[in-house]
Amino acid sequence: MLNKLQQLTKSEALLAKLTLLAGCVFTLLYFFFAHEGSYFNDDWAYSRYAHEVLTGDFEFEDMPFSHRFFAYLPVSVLYATIGVSPYITTVWPMLCTAGTLVLIYYLLRKNYPGVAMWAVILLGFNFHTLFLSNYLYPDNIVMLVGLGILGVLYRFRKVRQNAVGFALAFAVLNFLAMLTKETIIYILPFYLYVFVLDLVRKENLKFWVWSAVFGSILLAFYFAAYEIFTGHWLNRFLMTSEIVNEFKPGYLNNKTAYYFNRLTFEPIQFFIVSGIIVPIIFAFSAPGVTLRNLLKLENTRSYWLLVTILILLAFWFGSTSYTHYKPMVLVPRMITVLMPPLCISAGFALANNFYKPRFQLLVGVLFIAAAIISRSNMAAIYVPIGLFFLFVRFVPKFAIPVLGLLAIMFSLAIRPLHFMVKPTVTDYFVTQKLMTERLNHKSGRYQVFTNEYLAQQHASFYGYKPNPHYEYLNYNRTQHVSATADTAFLLMNHAMISNPELMMHLKADSVYMLFPERKLLWQKGSVQLYMLPKKKE
């Protein structure tokens, strides 16, 4: 058994395959065990658009969501071929999450299997990418497409053949990224830099010319379609600018204080609190390239590290508004395009420096420092990794790679595992069961008073085939029971109204005061159904 373990540690290619399998399996397990159904207005909107495309009812709305076609058109295909359900709704982002792991492995498996092994672990067990795989948000979709763009450019610069084919793939992927989410712009500085570098060197010009040709053709059709269907070829961008300006935060009244915090220490705090600091510590504890290597892209490691640095700079200092300086909000889903190149850069650092005492000491100290600074349960992730690297010298050398993999893997898995076993925060599936089985009469007229979220989105609980005999009302706006209703109900979802992220205005006690003559009919988990007395108009 000892000999087999020693052979395993020497086979980076085998370990890379096993970690890819582990990452994909863990993504699937998280998908099924941590699924909450639809979560908030974002994924509900994309789901509704997907269904409206099938029924021919789709119309543009004054929100960016309706313009992100690649986020929901694949879901329309799934609805048409399989059917409508919360799981089918989120198959697309889940596949993109697993697909990103596969693409990382594919790009690195031949020449850098050790790097692929570490990169897949760091991304495959990252909580936020797993969390987003369960909701119809565009962030993991743009993560995969962004890596595809970088991968095409990377592969072409390696083989330097079939410039037209690579240019077509590059242009199409950029176009699909634009149809997914605007955060793809974070990788634009990198390949503009590569273009200028190639222009100065007079290299790869055929690739760039054909990329411009194909990109121009795609954009011409795109803008022409907007001119025809919306009346203005720049409709999407004008609308986005208006929305950003409409929601100007209060910091504009005190710019100095806000800007200083946001542009100095707040991103560091954000990376620590979110867990993104894990690959950052690895990647920058041993960059392994000189400034000249980095700027001239003289090797693969320089390529992925420069991508990482430029995306970080764009996220840290860039603006989301055309009219005033407004840095991006510090939310993990706004920077998913960073994760693949960051994890690959971290993979290079780990693969090349894992056995070096100075690297081990620095990494161990930084993780313990992150645990202290976080002052939260994130310490449960940072402390085990930090202790492993501080005491790795006492581990038999042949066992270090496997134990290192397991230490990082299980430390990162703590938070996803918690979400897989913790109580639901929405009781979505209990609510759906109640609606489809008990609130689904085939005749009569019924009113259901419930929270604003369920009142607005009840159609999705019926698979977008709502019962015409039911009227769902927001009890925060009206408590009037119609005299023509056969029966009126009060539907309470305690998990949903107590979830701070859903920002409900009324809590349970306040709602009960609005309906003092209720009678309990059904209860399961945090969901309750009451009958309300009829009232004369």
Automatic annotation (TrEMBL):
<feature type="transmembrane region" description="Helical">
    <location>
        <begin position="184"/>
        <end position="200"/>
    </location>
</feature>
<feature type="transmembrane region" description="Helical">
    <location>
        <begin position="87"/>
        <end position="108"/>
    </location>
</feature>
<feature type="transmembrane region" description="Helical">
    <location>
        <begin position="12"/>
        <end position="33"/>
    </location>
</feature>
<feature type="transmembrane region" description="Helical">
    <location>
        <begin position="115"/>
        <end position="135"/>
    </location>
</feature>
<keyword id="KW-0808">Transferase</keyword>
<feature type="transmembrane region" description="Helical">
    <location>
        <begin position="303"/>
        <end position="322"/>
    </location>
</feature>
<feature type="transmembrane region" description="Helical">
    <location>
        <begin position="141"/>
        <end position="156"/>
    </location>
</feature>
<feature type="transmembrane region" description="Helical">
    <location>
        <begin position="207"/>
        <end position="229"/>
    </location>
</feature>
<keyword id="KW-0328">Glycosyltransferase</keyword>
<keyword id="KW-1133">Transmembrane helix</keyword>
<feature type="transmembrane region" description="Helical">
    <location>
        <begin position="362"/>
        <end position="392"/>
    </location>
</feature>
<keyword id="KW-0472">Membrane</keyword>
<feature type="transmembrane region" description="Helical">
    <location>
        <begin position="163"/>
        <end position="178"/>
    </location>
</feature>
<dbReference type="GO" id="GO:0016757">
    <property type="term" value="F:glycosyltransferase activity"/>
</dbReference>
<keyword id="KW-0812">Transmembrane</keyword>
<protein>
    <submittedName>
        <fullName>ArnT family glycosyltransferase</fullName>
        <ecNumber>2.4.-.-</ecNumber>
    </submittedName>
</protein>
<feature type="transmembrane region" description="Helical">
    <location>
        <begin position="334"/>
        <end position="355"/>
    </location>
</feature>
<feature type="transmembrane region" description="Helical">
    <location>
        <begin position="398"/>
        <end position="414"/>
    </location>
</feature>
<feature type="transmembrane region" description="Helical">
    <location>
        <begin position="268"/>
        <end position="291"/>
    </location>
</feature>
